[in-house]
């Protein structure tokens, strides 16, 4: 098992050695273990897998039956992080929601850093958190550039190592504030000390995300740039890589797929009065025994 120091350093090393990383959401130890074991052979001698895992506040809260309104703090989620680290050696990018007050964010940073998390992403919103993909269908307030920059500076000042990364997530495109506002904010966040930028969009064609990357790269060719293609799901990893992104996060698919499978199985057992019909959709007991180290 990796130490916290060994684990925390992995993400920066990967960013320095690979053009673009794949990260998959993991809300539990078993989902993290599956992410680590997943691989696909693209061609003879060339396989792909996931480089990192994403600890999502949406899936963490949903997994506990709670609303996605920042009800779980970083401290509340640390036990789950530690349980994931017991079985998975992939580096973790942590969804920090708004980060809370600057003073609270600084304390959360230290706890995440000690635990071995590699990066935290905080979004530039204030007030009661609402899921970004709701956009302007609900009331959401964007933080001022100066106040959010101050939060970034507070986080940077609290760091104890050079390994941990603070990533600023910009919500301007989500809230229909326009490309100029998104660029202005992201450049200010980098100036304030953000190690990287996550740009979010709910436009299904994905074109504004590609355009943002082009414009941002003209100013910052080397600052890590992250995207979350939940809305523009048709864009392939290679297209996002070629656009200039360094990390592509598949942010909620493990929980969403698990929920759908469990719902169907539960209903089919009732429908058929037995489990015979659902057995082909269930992992075999032998497979479970082989999946978990130390079971056999």
Automatic annotation (TrEMBL):
Matching InterPro entries: ICL/PEPM, PEnolPyrv_PMutase_core, Pyrv/PenolPyrv_kinase-like_dom, Pyrv_kinase-like_dom_sf
E.C. code: 5.4.2.9
Assigned keywords, A-Z: Isomerase
Family membership noted in the UniProt record: Belongs to the isocitrate lyase/PEP mutase superfamily. PEP mutase family.
A GO term for molecular function: phosphoenolpyruvate mutase activity
Protein name: phosphoenolpyruvate mutase
């Amino acid at each position: 098992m990796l130490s916290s120091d060994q684990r925390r350093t992995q993400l920066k090393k990967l960013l320095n050695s690979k053009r673009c990383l794949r990260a998959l959401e993991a809300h539990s130890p078993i989902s993290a273990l599956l992410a680590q074991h997943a691989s696909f052979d693209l061609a003879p001698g060339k396989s792909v897998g996931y480089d990192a895992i994403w600890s999502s506040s949406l899936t963490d809260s949903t997994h506990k039956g709670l609303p996605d309104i920042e009800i779980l703090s970083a401290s509340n989620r640390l036990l789950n992080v530690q349980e994931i680290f017991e079985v998975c050696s992939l580096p973790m990018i942590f969804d920090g929601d708004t980060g809370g007050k600057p003073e609270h964010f600084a304390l959360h940073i230290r706890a995440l850093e000690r635990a071995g998390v590699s990066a935290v992403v905080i979004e530039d919103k204030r007030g009661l958190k609402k899921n970004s993909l709701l956009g302007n269908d609900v009331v959401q307030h964007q933080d001022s550039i100066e106040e959010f920059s101050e939060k970034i500076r507070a986080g940077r000042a609290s760091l104890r190592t050079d390994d941990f990364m603070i990533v600023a997530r910009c919500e301007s495109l989500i809230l229909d504030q326009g490309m100029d506002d998104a660029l202005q904010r992201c450049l200010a966040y980098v100036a304030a000390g953000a190690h990287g930028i996550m740009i979010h969009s709910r436009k299904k064609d994905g074109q504004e995300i590609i355009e943002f990357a082009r414009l941002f790269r003209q100013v910052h060719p080397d600052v890590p740039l992250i995207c979350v293609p939940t809305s523009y799901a048709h864009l392939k990893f290679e297209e996002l890589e070629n656009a200039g992104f360094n990390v592509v996060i598949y942010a909620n698919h493990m929980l969403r797929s698990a929920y759908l499978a469990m719902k169907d199985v539960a209903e089919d057992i009732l429908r058929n009065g037995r489990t015979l019909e659902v057995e082909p959709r269930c992992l075999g007991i032998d497979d479970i025994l082989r999946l978990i180290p130390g079971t056999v």
